[in-house]
Amino acid sequence: MGKVLEFFKTLDxxxxxxxxxxxxxxxxINPMYLEINISKNARTYIKVLDSINENETVIVSFDYAASGxxxxxxxxxxxxxxxxxxxxxxxxxxxxxxxxxxxxxTVKQVIERFEKDYPDRKIVYGKDYINIGYKAGxxxxxxxxxxxxxxxxxxDKDGAPISDFEIMNKIDKLSDIKMVFALTGGNNGLLDxxxxxxxxxxxxxxxxxxxxxSAPQFYQYMNSGQLxxxxxxxxxxxxxxxxxxxxxxxxxxxxxxxxxxxxxxxxADVQSIVHLIIMIFIIIGxxxxxxxxxxxxxx
Amino acid sequence: MSEMIGINIAAILxxxxxxxxxxxxxxxxxxxxxxxxxxxxxxxxxxxxxxxFPNVYLPLQRGVKTGDASEFLVLIPTxxxxxxLTMLIPSLSVLSRIPIxxxxxxxxxxxxMAVIQTDIVPQINATIMPILPLTFANINNLxxxxxxxxxLIYFFFSTEHKGLVFGTGSQIGIIFLMITFxxxxxxxxxxxxxxLINRGYFLLGDWLHLIK
Lengths: 299, 212
Hints:
The structure holds two protein chains of two kinds.
Chain A: H1 2-9, H2 13-29, H3 40-50, E1 57-63, H4 69-85, E2 89-94, H5 99-117, E3 129-134, H6 139-145, H7 149-152, E4 179-184, H8 190-199, E5 206-210, H9 219-223, E6 227-232, H10 234-243, E7 245-249, E8 256-258, H11 262-298
Parallel strand pairs in A: 1-2, 1-4, 2-3, 4-5, 5-6
Antiparallel strand pairs in A: 7-8
Chain B: H1 2-18, H2 26-66, H3 75-84, H4 97-127, H5 136-154, H6 163-207
Helix pairs in contact in B: 1-2, 1-6, 3-4, 5-6
């Protein structure tokens, strides 16, 4: 028993890394497409998205950098797609410098997919959506947006005057915005800008999306009703994509097709398998600890 | 062709960073320094293009052209900003206190109300919930109330943690705190694993074309 105990006690961390790496490689190459169940959070989010009506304007704030993209991009993809389905007007912006550029890449992919799914609809820049870019200043930007959006955002991300775009015709102040969807990769976003200022001070409903690392900080705002909806990491992002139905039937399953792509499904598979491995190592670690305690008492 | 070169460089740098998992080495250090250097350079260009150019240079240029005195008001925040840099010169560093006190004062003034409206009143409100009659929903409410009260007792250090209220309360508080830390640990792993999978997908898919 002593030898086994010693083996696990002195287990090189690199062996754990190796197990995880092997699991990632094998599962990505041979996915199992495990079932994804739609949770209450994802269902609530769909209801929130469906509360946006035709021609109503929303802000989607991309407050994250490349490191947050693996978790937040699927959320942004689902949110933008659903908003286009709802025929809403979308203003994209960001309190993180990389955010608006990442927004451009995402919306490009969403439009490509959307126009394939809905051949009779064209999503036009400046009419259906706009990217007003990055603005430094944190909550002071929100305070100024509550007075005059076009004074603080004079040009779009590429420098064209913002007033030239049809989408901005009826938008003067923050109160003209129906809802804010803030996707946040850390500080300077949902928790310290949109929620305390846009939601609490100016009464604009805010729905959020965050990385799983920061998720526990946000649950309390869901419980208190301050957040209209919350996507807490990749798992709920995948659920959201699954919950968004497409306008045709899946030829394989004969059921309504959804936005969950094979790529996202594969990644969800890897998440499950890697978590299983980590759980096994946690159990081994705890059992070793308890045995060691018992063993040392017996000595 | 240029995309292929970009993918190869990204793949090599990804592997260089992951080589740290085996042990610290030259490749890792090279990739790390490149990351820090390019990030700093990128942020400088972002600050210039998004802050200094539109908010300082353009108004001053307009002011010089039109003679509009109001355009020169940007000199006040610009000078305050430059005064921040006096921190680097010991004999002048006292000047940096003026912009810092302005920033702290403004932040505290604007933030105080936001904190009360966001974190204090609504959160206390959300904890005042019905616990009777004992339905499933009310049992859930009861757990929340017990969790909040006991966790607060644990952080109450003015009285020794003994007896039914403070002793047992703080012990229950520890259990709730441990559950919270466990949840935090779980979600942290989930986030980090997601980053790993993303890189794995890039290496196996975009670089090696092994994913169909």
